[in-house]
Design goal:
InterPro entries: AraC-bd_2 (IPR035418), AraC_XylS_family_regulators (IPR050204), Homeodomain-like_sf (IPR009057), HTH_AraC (IPR018060), Tscrpt_reg_AraC-type_HTH (IPR020449). This protein is of the alpha+beta class and about 325 residues long. It has ten helices and twelve strands. Among the domains are: about 140 residues, Jelly Rolls (Sandwich); about 55 residues, Homeodomain-like (Arc Repressor Mutant, subunit A). The protein is elongated.
């Protein structure tokens, strides 16, 4: 309606959304002092979903063909964030610091918006964008003379793990609480740090699968009491594919399920060693560690330690 007042998009559950004419306004608020120039049919089909992940921000954008002019992005109150984009549809060109970089499906581009740039999108695009605070990244890895860095989504690479995390997180964002979002944001930030350190030949951070395995082990340790704990849930919580959860444990010669049951039995042995045997104790330990029954627990314990839980408890104090 002509003359109607503009009401900015209202976040739902900490999630910012915009479409059509609201798209450029929200983009400027979240991404800095950018100017979006839509051509042809305009921006009627453009969509933006964005959420803060602790120190980082993750966004999914679907936009009609347009130009992004980033001449003064970090002026004023604009967020001082480095941007990483992973395009899933369409072909674009990033012009920055004398470099003309092609951006297409399966490409990863990291650039510093403090340096003027032009992002040309001659066709409709879909992409994921991760913004990471500049102060959380190694200065030496931000490119030579402000030039953007590019890579491909090679299977098993750090970039592929990051993409899986970004994609899963934005799809599951409605189900994640603030603490889970912050943990995912910190993990994504560590992966970006690893990419920059590798590009600058600084001492590398642990490999991406090593980092993922360490995160999984922390999650398992905090959730051993839950009978439903398994690889599918872990993949969802880690923000990666099920295949990567299995790959994380390949170097240790076990599956995620093997590790979970091994940890349950290790913790059970520890509890039985510390506490004097009492009526009902075997069942309490079994159920506190996610076993379906005390009989199931006793069989698994004997297979692992060659003693019954009762025998183990008594021998630990003799």
């Amino acid at each position: 309606m002509a003359g109607a007042a503009f009401h900015p998009p209202v976040p739902a559950g900490g999630i910012d959304r915009a479409a059509g004419a609201d798209f450029p306004r929200l983009a400027r608020r979240l991404f800095g002092n950018v100017r979006l120039d839509f051509t042809g049919a305009g921006n009627r089909e453009s969509r933006l979903v964005s959420v803060a992940l602790g120190p980082c921000r993750l966004s999914r954008l679907s936009a009609d063909r347009h130009m992004v002019h980033g001449d003064r992005v970090t002026e004023g109150d604009a967020p001082d964030m480095v941007k990483l984009i992973i395009q899933t549809k369409g072909h674009s060109w990033l012009h920055q610091s004398g470099r003309r970089l092609p951006v297409g499906p399966s490409s990863v581009v990291l650039y510093d918006p403090a340096n003027p740039y032009l992002l040309a999108n001659p066709e409709a695009v879909d992409l994921l964008m991760l913004q990471v605070p500049r102060g959380c990244l190694p200065v030496e890895g931000l490119g030579v003379s402000g030039r953007p860095l590019a890579a491909s989504l090679i299977p098993g690479s750090m970039h592929r793990v990051l993409f899986s995390m970004m994609e899963s997180t934005i799809c599951e964002i409605e189900t994640l609480d603030e603490a889970e979002r912050t943990r995912l944001g910190n993990s994504m930030m560590e992966l970006v740090r690893g990419m920059l350190e590798a590009a600058s030949e600084a001492p590398p951070v642990p490999r991406s699968l090593d980092l993922l395995r360490a995160r999984i082990k922390d999650y398992v340790a905090a959730n051993l009491s839950r009978p439903e704990l398994g690889a599918p849930e872990i993949a969802r919580r880690m923000g990666c594919s099920l295949r990567y959860v299995y790959r994380a444990f390949e170097t240790e010669g076990m599956t995620p399920a093997d590790y979970i049951w091994s940890e349950r039995l290790r913790k059970a042995a520890e509890l039985l060693s510390r506490q004097p045997m009492a009526p009902g104790m075997i069942g309490e330990v079994a159920f506190s560690l996610g076993f379906s029954s005390s009989a199931h627990f006793s069989r698994a314990f004997r297979n692992r330690f060659h003693q019954s839980p009762t025998e183990w408890s008594r021998s630990a104090r003799t």
